[in-house]
Amino acid sequence: MNRTVELGKVSIPVTAALAPMAGVADRAYRLMCKKFGAAYVVSEMVSAKGICYSDKKTAQLCTVTEQERPMAVQLFGSEPEFMAKAVDIVLKYEPDIIDINMGCPVPKVVGTGAGSALMKDISLAAEITAAAVKAAGDVPVTVKLRSGWSSDDINVCEAAKAVEAAGAAAVAVHGRTRDQFYSGKADWNVIRRVKGSVSIPVFGNGDVTDLNSCLKMYEETGCDLVMIARGSYGNPFIFKEIAAHFNGGDYSPPTVEEKMQVMLEHIRLIISLSEKNEEMAMHEARKHAAWYMNGYYGSAKFRGRCYLLSSYSEAEALAGEFIELQRSRNAGC
Ligand SMILES: Cc1cc2nc3c(=O)[nH]c(=O)nc-3n(C[C@H](O)[C@H](O)[C@H](O)COP(=O)(O)O)c2cc1C
């Protein structure tokens, strides 16, 4: 019997989840990760205030499709009243979970007192959580935290306890401080310490890039669920490998042909879900195409060419050329 994490009525298989990524993990990306076995996905962060002022783009970010479930909509904000109102509005989209972002390090967000700025004001973090929990009714509210603001102020255990007391159903911990942004190494010890400090489930996040690091994170931190962000770039297969490990299924790494097929499928999805024309949608697809080509012979040159793609047929031709290059290399030409 496979293990699950239960948050209210939501049941999440204990394999690996997709962490939120603004500008990357949009619907097409989430659907690809889900198709390959992600246990759970989270939307790109959405401004609580933006929703309250009925920003159309913001509302699009909150839509949840059946194939993505279980899915959380992630909100950021620094005012409990706006958070409560935003939750109320987001409930229309029937998310399985509402997640509150208390980890975003970017100045635009931190400057408004939201994201990881809340790691410096734990009582406000708790108030925001309590407001969201009250507005959410029986929809679980989770909170995504960093280890602290800076290395001099690692306070995530205190923050996790405060949001637990405010009604959070789980916490996700990215083991970096705000000052680290995305550099350096994630500190998994803090995740283990949070696990020992609270009774709610703890999701571990930071530097999981393959099955081995995923298993290591479960073992070293005791976390309830691993969340993966950058390790899924051009690599939805990571979820398949991890799910196969836990579910006893077979897994073999994709061939270059399979990788290119999946890349093209992802690009088709980006184009079909985009409200823009094909050329504009391809701008969005470029970085993904480049990620799928990572780590192969000659990929630096091909990745550069991905950033010039302006149509699906060009992507198809480039994928064909890329496969040929790998084949001729393998044939020793
Ligand atoms: C491009 C990018 C966008 C991100 N956007 C969000 C976001 O919207 N909300 C959030 O909570 N975290 C966001 N994060 C942080 C990730 O969810 C994750 O915590 C971090 O990347 C560490 O995990 P990793 O080592 O698996 O990448 C973002 C990270 C990246 C790289």
Structural overview:
This protein has 333 residues and is an alpha/beta fold. The chain has 2 domains: 4-247, Aldolase class I (TIM Barrel), CATH 3.20.20; 256-330, Non-ribosomal Peptide Synthetase Peptidyl Carrier Protein, Chain A (Orthogonal Bundle). The chain is built from 14 helices and 11 strands. It has helices at residues 27-35, 48-52, 56-62, 80-90, 107-110, 122-136, 156-165, 188-197, 211-221, 237-247, 256-273, 278-292, 299-306, 312-330; strands at 4-7, 10-13, 16-18, 41-42, 46-47, 71-76, 97-102, 141-148, 170-177, 202-205, 225-228. Strands 3, 4, 5, 6, 7, 8, 9, 10 and 11 form a 9-stranded parallel β-sheet that branches. β8, α7 and β9 form a beta-alpha-beta unit. α12 (278-292) packs antiparallel against α13. The model has no long low-confidence stretch (mean pLDDT 97). Residues 19-24, 44-45, 74, 101, 103-104, 144, 174, 182, 205-208, 228-231 line the site of flavin mononucleotide.
